[in-house]
Amino acid sequence: MAAAVQVVQSPSAAAALLKPDRLRILQLLAEPDSAAGVARRLELPRQSVNYHLHELEKEGFVEFVEHRKRGNCEERIVRATARSFVISPAALGALGQTAEGVKDRFSSAYLVAAAARLIRDIETEIRFASAESRRRFTEEAVDTLAALAAKYHNGRSTSGRSFRFLLAGLPVITKEEPLDPAPVSME
Fold this sequence. Notes:
By secondary structure, the protein is α+β, with helices and mostly antiparallel strands. It has 2 domains: about 5-85, Arc Repressor Mutant, subunit A; about 125-185, no CATH class. About 45% of the residues lie in helices and about 15% in strands. It has 7 helices and 4 strands. It has a two-stranded parallel sheet with strand order 1-4. It has a two-stranded antiparallel sheet with strand order 2-3. Strand 2 (about 60-70) and strand 3 form a beta hairpin. Helix 5 packs across helix 6. It is elongated. The mean pLDDT is about 80.
């Protein structure tokens, strides 16, 4: 059974994934299929699909399921290793330009580069000893942010500018560490 989410950590894996035909192939491989089956559905040459499948399998996005007899041939059946793929900011940062290197500050390339830099600059990792310590940390962080907002917010200012701040906490997912089946509550 495919994992719910697979985190893409390396720049080479992200580069292999971020090709339109490969993304379309992965969407179809939510259910196991062969290169010939995918090629028919996408109306692409089977050789091209075979090449993309080889590259996706090399990076761990596709896995072998079984060999299936079809006429005089034996087809290799594969499937996607996850239902969703998330590219870590570290991998994106290595692939993309720096925000300073992008001329158009309204382009998506600039926004992705700026977001990756922001995450690298302000991200911190905390290992909580228990769900209770995670709850207490969350309450304190929310209270601190609320106190800062109350201290500096000036709704009457006509020359000021409004900003939106976000406090987020996400579980760290690694291949070595099993996913915690219990949902993380930030309440």
